[in-house]
Structure formats: structure tokens, C-alpha cells
Amino acid sequence: MEIKKHFGVYGVCFQDGKLLCIEKTRGPYQHRFDLPGGSQEIGEGLTETLQREVLEETGYTLRHYSNPRIYDVLVQEEGKDFAVHHIMAFYDIVLDLERSQKSLPQEVLDGSNDSANAIWLPLEQMTEENASPLVLKAKAELLGFPELELTSYRNWKVKHAKSTGS
Predict the structure, then answer these.
(1) In a 10 Å sphere around its CB, with 0-12 CB exposed, 13-18 middle and 19+ buried, how is residue 2 labelled?
(2) Fewer CB within 10 Å: N-end or C-end of the chain?
(3) Cα(117)–Cα(101) distance, integer angstroms
């Protein structure tokens, strides 16, 4: 089986018992809650990627970031002959609510971004059925049980939008 590597930088913002999440619109985590973040662009450092991705996906600017750490998961989509080794850099983030945009950036609105809708989600509402492995890692960490071993998700089910019937 082929293993593809994916590296991304993600923000963990936990306030009042809720985690800042985004709703994925494409990819293996589509129609699930995910952490704001993503891949580096050419020439970007990790924290530059973090700041850009959080702004693009949520409309929030960062006031502060700290506590960098690395996790990874192996995700094999159901019916695929390859797996993705997803390596993720997490940073704790504090939002600058006064300087944040009032609406989401154009990339989100026109569909060129792979996420929509920033949402504050209580930990108890995050499950393997509605959240990405990144959110599940953050949840375990916030509950005091961080998963340090590589976690493997075999036969990962990509969720498809429910038809509304016309």
C-alpha cells in the first residue's frame, strides 16, 4: 500500500468549554468538524501559515500563539489503495477579536477554500462520526489524555452531503 505524506499547521483555540472548529467542504474530512489550519505556501514559516490559514478559514486574526507540538495519524479512506500519513503541527492560539474581520474572506465565500463556517463546538459534541482526527486529537489533549502514539484510521468513511430531494 502506498503512503502519502501530508503536513499542516493548525490552531487550537479553546474558550468557555468550546473548541474553535471549521466545517470541511472537501477532502477526506468533508462534512466534518476540523481545526483551522492547513498547508504551507512556498516560503512560509510555520507561524506565518498558522496566521494565514486561521484568518482565511475563520476571519479571525491571532493575538498570540504558543506551545507548538507535533502529532500524526494514518488515514486510509474506505476503498482506496493508499493511506495518508497526516503530520500536524498544533499551536495554542488566542484570537484578536477586536481586529478580526466581520465576515469570512472571499476564498471561503466563493468556494475556493476547502472550509466553511467557523463554529465553537463543545467537547462533548465531538465524535468520530462528525469530527476529523485532528479535532479528536485536540479533544483528547484538552481532556488530559493526549494520544502520543500514531493513531490509525482504517476504512475511513468520507461523508457525503445528504441529498435534500427536490
Answers:
(1) exposed
(2) C
(3) 14
